[in-house]
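Do me a favour: review this protein, sequence plus structure tokens, and tell me how the chain folds. Record follows.
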Amino acid sequence: MQTGKIGVTSENLFPIIKKFLYSDHDIFLREIVSNAVDATQKLKTLASKDEYKGDVTDLKVRVKLDKKAKTITVSDNGIGMTAEEIEKYINEIAFSGANDFLEKYKDDANAIIGHFGLGFYSSFMISKEVDIITKSYKEGSKPVKWTCQGTPEFTLDEIEKEEVGTDIVMHINEDSEEFLDENKISEILNKYCKFLPVPVVFRKQKEWKDGKEVETDKDNQINDTEPAWTKMPADLKDEDYNNFYRKLYPMADEPLFHIHLNVDYPFNLTGILYFPKIKNNFEVQKNKIQLYSNQVFVTDSVEGIVPEFLTLLHGVLDSPDIPLNVSRSYLQSDSNVKKISNHITKKVADRLSEIFKESRENFEKKWDDLKIFIEYGMLTDDKFYDRAMKFFLFKNTEGKYFTFEEYEQLIKESQTDKDKKVVHLYTTNQEEQYTFVEDARAKGYDVLILDDVLAPHLINRFEQKQTDTSFVRVDADVAENLIKKEDSEKEDLSWEEKQELSPVFQAVVPEKNDHTFIVDFKDLGENASPMVITRSEFMRRMKDMSAAQGGMNMYGDLPDSLNLVVNTAHPLVKKVIEAKDKKLSTQLEKMNADIAAQKAEAEKLEKAKEGKKEEEVPQAEKEQLESVNNELAKLEEEKRSKLADFGKKNKLAKQMVDLALLANNMLKGADLDKFVRRSVELIK
């Protein structure tokens, strides 16, 4: 028997392995099984070169759980090791430079394995003792058993062993007895070893017999050794891709598209990415891409490895150029990872462009489900934005689809404003904004549907990139003013007339804290609605973006600023004006005369002050001017009060305001009940 010490002087190595090497102790089984797979693949390679004459037709890795002995054994029939190789690969190489490395990475112990191949030693995280029982493929080699109890001391004995290969026997410590559960081992193997390239067997297959589950004589192979991404795209059909998707995500709906990646220069990368169906407006399903290295599962937390917007996709990526066991910070700064990330972005854009060109009809059918990915990518990745502009689609209210360029050609002539900007009109809810959409279309305009949560951000991005383009929601103004042309608006009321009418209608708008109304007057034509409620494009867009970000900015708490546009050409509005004139004309004439007299007096006193410094104006004149201004303010307030009182009592004025509110889905509860009752009274 040989005894000795592992080639490491620090007594701290094993505690670090046990406690800090991995955040997830489950990974020990991945490491040991992966080593066993490597050993079998190496033997197969030697056989292909005629350097090994034995049988390689039944290479397997077996995992065995013995609850009574409290052991987990991973066995392979691979190349095995000689005593000299154990000394070299287990006792020396794995620890070369370990002390310096530990000092350098004491705050990032995850990096150890990635640099020094310490995968085998992860077994000590859950073991009080580990045995290596092995026989090399080399002729004349003696089988040996290496034993270590998690200290630098080990023993090495010659033993009897018939078959070539290696058994790793882990004697589970008291703190880790959870790993003696059969379901736990199945779960770990299914997570990390599901697609390893060599058959991995754990226990026997089970079947139901006489009302209970019993073991059969057949081995239970837990992995698919040739998953879809390892094959050439030409050898796969759509059915194969969909079957593989169901294997990855048994409960998911059928995917929209898939992209098969197969790159061997300037780095190795294979994989299949799927665009899943999103069930609601923005259902973020990150951690659905599985990252592999040579078919060994690494992680499903791929942020920093793939572009942010592609974390919404599902599927598999496999690259030996991504280290297995290094920390996330290392991955995010690794040059290979960055190259892979950029390449994936390009491949996804190329594939989408290809699908768009090959089958635009199919692309359009899936656009509503697909667009959230593309919009997210355009918002977070400039290069993807430029590529996506070729296949990004607008959908209009008629259900037709256009690329950005196609749509600009469609609307350029009719929807270019006086500043030479092409105005894209849009609705965020075709049903709720139906009247505005129809009014815009009646003017000969086309209207887009931009109804998802990313739309406000995307609109801003478009306007930043395409500076000769603007976007205006259909309810931002009356149809005549949505696109400002050179011709001026019709004006049939003077400023004084508008000032006199404003209190009448301001008196009947709702008084609520969540929105304010500004009354305006326009000639919209006698066939248009008597009143229209519009929303400022700028303020509404800022509030929409604030809501999408959780309301954490100055616009989120501001009330909605709404415009009540009174159509002065409508017969009902004229009827209210006539009623106002008939009831208040005498009183208003006197008030206006008094106001005019006070204004004249105020102007006279202001003129007397011209050319004088403040201290040169007599105090009596100052007091007289103040008195005149106070009287003027009082008279104007009396006039507004008189007009407001008329407005409150005028059922027709209130009815028209409520109709405008109803058209905007803003009339509810008690106000709606009053509207219905008033409607009955007016109909009688």
The chain has 21 helices and 22 strands. The radius of gyration is 39 Å.
